[in-house]
């Protein structure tokens, strides 16, 4: 009987160094990365998000994504282009005008009166927001801290 082994999961290094610029019609994101080409890139561009995966650059896989863009874009008029020393993501704006940031900022609601009775609720809400908006490393760190706190590992150190 032949035993099938699942292929290893693809791991990505999150790209964190970038710059961006805009005009009235487009937002351009510049990601410094040498050694890539169009064939190594996989993109998923939606009206409110985009995900860029770059495979096998110096033996590593890279990823940059924004799950909630500041404003909506036109996916079929947005492009990702590999240059010799960088990747350029060009996002066509749905509406003309300036963006204050690449990421959509959720409006923070004022804490309900019951939070005064439970001061931990505000901290939990802040941690939830950090988790929701964070990258993979942030999520792993928060999950580990949560598990350690639940199992009592954090409070018992002397």
Automatic annotation (TrEMBL):
It comes from the Eukaryota. Residues 13-103 form the CS domain. Residues 87-158 form the SGS domain. Transmembrane segments: none annotated. InterPro entries: CS_CacyBP, CS_dom, HSP20-like_chaperone, SGS_dom. Pfam families: CS. This is Calcyclin-binding protein. It comes from Sphagnum troendelagicum.
């Amino acid at each position: 009987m032949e035993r099938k082994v699942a292929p290893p999961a693809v791991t990505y290094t999150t790209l964190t160094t970038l710059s961006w610029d805009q005009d009235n019609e487009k937002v351009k994101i510049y990601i410094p990365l040498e050694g890539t080409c169009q064939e190594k890139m996989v993109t998923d561009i939606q009206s409110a998000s985009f995900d860029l995966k770059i495979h096998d650059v110096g033996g590593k896989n890279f990823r940059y994504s924004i799950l909630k863009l500041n404003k909506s874009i036109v996916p079929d008029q947005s492009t990702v282009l590999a240059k010799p020393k960088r990747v350029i993501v060009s996002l066509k704006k749905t509406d003309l005008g300036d963006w204050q940031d690449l990421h959509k900022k959720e409006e923070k609601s004022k804490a309900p009166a019951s939070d005064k009775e439970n001061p931990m609720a505000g901290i939990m809400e802040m941690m939830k927001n950090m988790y929701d908006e964070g990258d993979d490393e942030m999520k792993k760190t928060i999950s580990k801290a949560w598990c350690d706190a639940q199992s009592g590992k954090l409070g018992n150190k002397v």
